[in-house]
Amino acid sequence: MSLLREIQDAAISSDVELTTLLRKCKVLSARLGNDDFKRWVDNELDGYKDAESLPEYRLLYVNSKGHFSGAFGSGLTNADIPMSCIPEDFRDNLSKSYIHGAIASLEALVAKSDGGTASEPWNPDLVAHVGQSIYRGMNCMQAWKVIPITSIVATLDAVRNRILNFVLEIEAEAPDAGEAAINS
Hints:
alpha+beta; 4-stranded antiparallel β-sheet
């Protein structure tokens, strides 16, 4: 079976881990001499270093929650944080989660989850800065972004789909490309 067909079969199968599929793509990128594809595969395997290089499917729109304390022992736990209570300068960052991690870490997160949510903590300095302006008479003690596991699954699926689309395009143009000599 050719490497292109192996990659196609692996991309279609939910039984093949995405990291294994990406490693096959790494071999293909070396055989093709395609630096853009190699860079993308390496970023997916190792994680992205900065937000500017993240593909759009790794940017998730999220909500935030927090724990609040008030007078006389009152408090709120897991309370929604409306973005309208947050200064405009911080809203964009707090309504998005940039998924930098390696595919292996995302797969592990999904495997360990109960299907609910993951979280990304707010910077404690930001919590201290805006904590008293969210709920009247309450101070935010801890806050986090709520990331639905289904969004992470969709990110993983987007990677799998991109791989499948790419190898199908290659096969349409050069069916033996995965078996060709290096840089041919």
